[in-house]
Amino acid sequence: MKEEKKIKNNISPQKKEKTNKIDELYKIEQKIFCIKQEKKNAKLRHFANIDNATKKTIQEVKLIKKNQFKGFVKNISSIINQIDNLVKISKKSISIPKTVVEGIQLTHNILEKNLKIWHIKKINQVNVPFNSNIHILENNKKKDTNTDNIKIKKIKKNGYKFKNYIIKKATVVI
């Protein structure tokens, strides 16, 4: 019996050693799997960051272009108004040569076409109710006056609208 116990004692440590090695191998495999997952996740995060940066840059470029375009239209609105005034004056005047009148009219037509292509609408309607969002009263009128249900009689300076954004309010007389 003593010999059997010795044999069992000798076998048991070997089995324990094997199970310990198997456990260690399992732990190592788990670590390898976790590292592979972390590597995969890091790669995916990297691609996601690149994609997000690209999308953000595209949005910023669009916003900059839109704001630059609005600024451009705002800056040339006075030129557009001057050309409109020249067209009105040249139609009434007899002393201006016909070729100059035609040149002014052609310039005006080209400008109107471009405004339409750029989706810019003029705010120049008369006999419509005053709207403080798109109209400004002429300077000599009091700002305290009640403008509810008052119609616009005359446009002093055209306003401009790009899509839903008011670039410049129209100056009006009520």
TrEMBL record:
Entry keyword annotation includes Ligase: no
Keywords, comma-separated and alphabetical: Chaperone, Stress response
Molecular function in Gene Ontology: adenyl-nucleotide exchange factor activity; protein homodimerization activity; protein-folding chaperone binding
Family: Belongs to the GrpE family.
Protein name: Protein GrpE
Lineage: Bacteria, Pseudomonadati, Pseudomonadota, Gammaproteobacteria, Enterobacterales
GO biological process assignments: protein folding
Stored SUPFAM superfamilies: Coiled-coil domain of nucleotide exchange factor GrpE
The keyword S-adenosyl-L-methionine appears for this protein: no
Entries under Pfam families matching the protein: GrpE (PF01025)
InterPro entries named among the record's database cross-references: GrpE, GrpE_CC, GrpE_head
